[in-house]
Fold this protein.
Amino acid sequence: MNKKAIAMLSGGLDSILAVRLVQEQGIEIHAINFLTIFCTCTHKGCQHAATQAAKQLNIPLKVLNITEEYLEIIKKPKHGYGSNMNPCIDCRIFTFGMAKKYMEEIGASFIITGEVLGERPMSQRRDAILLIEKEVGLKGRILRPLSAKLFDPTLAEKEGIVDREKLLEISGRSRKPQIELAKNFNINDYPCPAGGCLLTDPGFAKRIRDLLDHNELILDNVRLLKFGRHFRLSEEAKLVVGRDEGENGELEKLAMPNDLLFKLADRQGPVSILRISSIRPSVSNETLIALAASIAAYHTKFRSEEALNINYWKAGEPGGEATLAIKPAKAEDVEKARL
Ligand code: SF4
C-alpha cells in the first residue's frame, strides 16, 4: 500500500473537508468527479464546484460525464429507488466502480469520500454503505475521514498510512460539526449542501417515470424535462409549454428535427414543443396537433377568447409555417394531461 489516494470530490463541504483531513497526513490525492444531467450542485453546475474545490485544495481533478450510463441505471436499478426516482445505491456502486478503475489506473491504494454516516437517508445508512463497498469489491479500501471512527479501520489505517486518531466520528444530518471544522481549516467558500440530484425531486421524478413508462428515457427527452410545463397527450406524444422568455428560447434550441413548434400567430405568448416518438401512432397527427395547439392557447393571456390563431412548424423549418384557428383547451382537460 502506498500514500496515494483517489478522492471522490463533489465540491461540497464534506468532500473538501475529507480531502483536507487526509492531505494533512501527507497523502497524495487525485480527485475524481462525476457529472450527470441530474446534478443540482450550483447554478453554475457541479463541474464548476468540483473544479473550484480542486483548485482550492491544489489537487488534480478528473471529471467524467456519466449521463448515458446513468440513464441505463435508472431504467432498472438492482437495489431499487429511494423516495422518488433516485437509484442511490446503484448510483454509488457505479461511481465507486469508476473510482476503483481510476485508482488502479494511476496506482493509488485507497479511496476517500466525504460520506457522513446517516447524513443521507438511502445511500449513507451503515447497511447501505457496507453493501456498496462489498458489491464494488472495495472492502477496507474506502476511507471516510469524517466518520472513520464509526467504522472498522480501513487497510490504510491498519497499515499506518493514515493515522486513525486524526480522523473524526461525525454522524447524522446536522451540519454544525462540518461548519466548525471548515472554520478551523479557514475554508469559507463552499457551495450549499445539495440535497441530492434532480431525481430526488418529486415533480421531476414524476416526469422521469412517465418517460420510462413510455419507453422514451433517452437523453434528448431528459434534456427537455428541465424546462417548461409538461403534458402527456397520448401514448407516443408529449407537449412542453415554455413558462417565460428564457424557457421559450431553451425549448427552441432543444427542438429535434421531427418536433413541431407552436406559437401564437400575431401576439406574444409561449413557445411549445410537440414531440411524437412512435412510428406507429395510436392517435392521428391532426388530433395531436389540435390538442397541442389548444393547450398552448390555454397558456396565453388570451385563453378566454373564443379562438386563437396558432402557428406551428417543423423544427428547423420556420418558413414552413401553418396556422390553426383553435379554441383554447378547458382547464380540466389541461389538468388531465399535465405531468
Ligand atoms: S441523490 Fe442522485 S446523485 Fe446522489 S446518490 Fe442518489 S441517485 Fe446518485
Summary: Residues 86-88, 91-92, 123, 196-197, 199-200 surround iron/sulfur cluster (CB under 6 Å). The chain has a mean pLDDT of 92.
